[in-house]
């Protein structure tokens, strides 16, 4: 019995071995067959890219697209991937990313496009066009999103809004700009004026522009008043600018155009003053007794603004009579102080008009011999035969004028204009 069992076991083992060998042979055969198929597949043309993926630069808010051209794609698929986040954006024509600004198009042959509309700054980065071969094939392109410069409207704490200071003080202007790439900031004065940069040692430098976000004006003077332009640019159009208004406060300073003016009676005369002040002053005219003058039949009053801190005051006194002569005062006042200037109006005594008596015409029958004329050595050009009433305008001088700083004026008398300089009128 034991012998029969041993024989049976031996026979069963042989059968099992045979089955194992058969199975092994069958597996190797299948492996060979499929390996041959696989080897045959590897010898077929693989997908290939016909052109590199471009690197793109686009301004924020515009549209952009990547183009991927693949030949011999066969059963493989094209996928779009954002490299930095490893996020799959699309496979074939199916969108995976839940971003309505992304889309994919295919021309039905070998060209695939990834479209990004209304590009945002966070769209920057590397994008990959990938084919799912083994090993995987891919190419990448970079997207740079640029942003035009923009100037912030916020003012820093403890800065003087609007650039206001008293004369001799300091003004600091701050202009912060944003953009990609980071913009450069430059300061210029309005109308091409120079910028005066002063140091603590009162040394000054005159320049056309200043670089940087901050413009510091030390020991400001009234001539520093006006508009200053902050200009930001980063190579992405358009450049932008912002205007800052610098105001310098100071009390009025009044100067008379001429401290002494002479005019004849029954004429009109113009008196003028120049006022420098800021903030805007209150200006007026008075007589020496303190009487304020107003616009009317006797006086014409006007003022003209010459620049941000300078005014010209005009007073016309009409139909002069004796009581109009004397001092006139132009005054100016603002929150920081007041000032005035005095103009003395003096009567101009004109010479009497020369009178001539017509000489009757007497025909001459006999030619008289020419008589030698004698000229006076005093007063060049004086002809004694013209009579004693002849007035030499080059020698007439206004007397009894005590002020010595009269520069000149125009005098109108009986429809004629007389010009007076250094008390000489003609």
Report Rg: 51 Å
What is the first-to-last residue Cα distance?
169 Å
Contiguous helical run count: 1
* Model regions low in confidence, pLDDT < 50 over at least 5 residues: 1-42, 157-161, 372-426
- Tell me about the biggest sheet? 8 strands, mixed
Strand content: 35-45%
Helical residues, percent: under 10%
CATH top level of the domain at 48-146 is Mainly Beta
CATH architecture of the domain at 48-146: Sandwich
The dominant shape is rod-shaped
CATH-level-4 superfamily name of the domain at 48-146: Immunoglobulins
Count of individual beta strands? 30
Structural class of the helices, strands and pairings? mainly beta
Domain Ig-like: 47-144, 149-241, 252-346
Region (Disordered): 352-388
Organism: Anopheles minimus
GO cellular component, one term: plasma membrane
């Amino acid at each position: 019995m034991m012998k029969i069992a041993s024989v049976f076991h031996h026979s069963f083992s042989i059968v099992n071995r045979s089955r194992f060998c058969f199975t092994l042979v069958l597996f190797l055969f299948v492996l060979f067959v499929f390996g041959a198929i696989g080897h045959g597949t590897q010898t077929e043309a693989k997908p290939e890219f016909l052109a590199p993926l471009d690197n793109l630069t686009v301004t924020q808010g515009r549209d952009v697209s990547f183009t991927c051209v693949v030949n011999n794609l066969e059963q493989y698929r094209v996928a779009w991937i954002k490299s930095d986040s490893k996020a799959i954006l699309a496979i074939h024509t199916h969108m995976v990313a839940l971003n309505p600004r992304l889309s994919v198009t295919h021309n039905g042959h070998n060209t695939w496009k990834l479209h990004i509309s209304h590009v945002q700054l966070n769209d920057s980065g590397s994008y990959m066009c990938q084919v799912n071969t083994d090993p995987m094939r891919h190419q990448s392109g970079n997207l740079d999103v640029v942003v035009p410069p923009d100037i912030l409207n916020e003012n820093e704490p403890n800065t003087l809004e609007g650039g206001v200071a008293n004369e001799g003080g300091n003004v600091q202007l701050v202009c912060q700009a944003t953009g990609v790439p980071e913009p450069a900031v430059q300061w210029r004065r309005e109308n091409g004026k120079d910028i005066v940069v002063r140091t603590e040692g009162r040394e000054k430098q005159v320049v056309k522009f200043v670089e940087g976000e901050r413009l510091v004006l030390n020991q400001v003077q009234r001539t520093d008043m006006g508009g200053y332009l902050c200009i930001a640019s980063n190579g992405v159009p358009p450049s932008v600018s912002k205007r800052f208004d610098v105001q310098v406060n100071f009390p009025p300073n009044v100067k008379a155009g001429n401290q002494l003016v002479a005019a004849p009676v029954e004429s009109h005369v113009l008196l003028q003053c120049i006022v420098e002040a800021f903030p805007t002053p209150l200006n007026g005219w008075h007589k020496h007794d303190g009487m304020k003058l107003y616009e009317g039949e006797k006086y014409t009053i006007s003022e003209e603004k010459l620049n941000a801190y300078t005014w010209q005051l005009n007073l016309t006194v009409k139909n002069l009579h004796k009581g109009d002569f004397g001092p006139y005062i132009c005054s100016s006042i603002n929150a920081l102080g007041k000032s005035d200037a005095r103009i003395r109006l003096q009567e101009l005594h004109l010479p009497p008009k020369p009178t001539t008596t017509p000489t009757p015409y007497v025909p001459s029958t006999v030619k008289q011999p020419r008589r030698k004329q004698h000229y006076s050595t005093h007063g060049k050009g004086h002809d004694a035969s013209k009579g004693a009433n002849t007035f030499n305008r080059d020698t007439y001088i206004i007397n009894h004028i005590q002020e010595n700083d009269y520069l000149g004026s125009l005098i109108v008398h009986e429809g004629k204009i007389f010009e007076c300089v250094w008390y000489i009128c003609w």
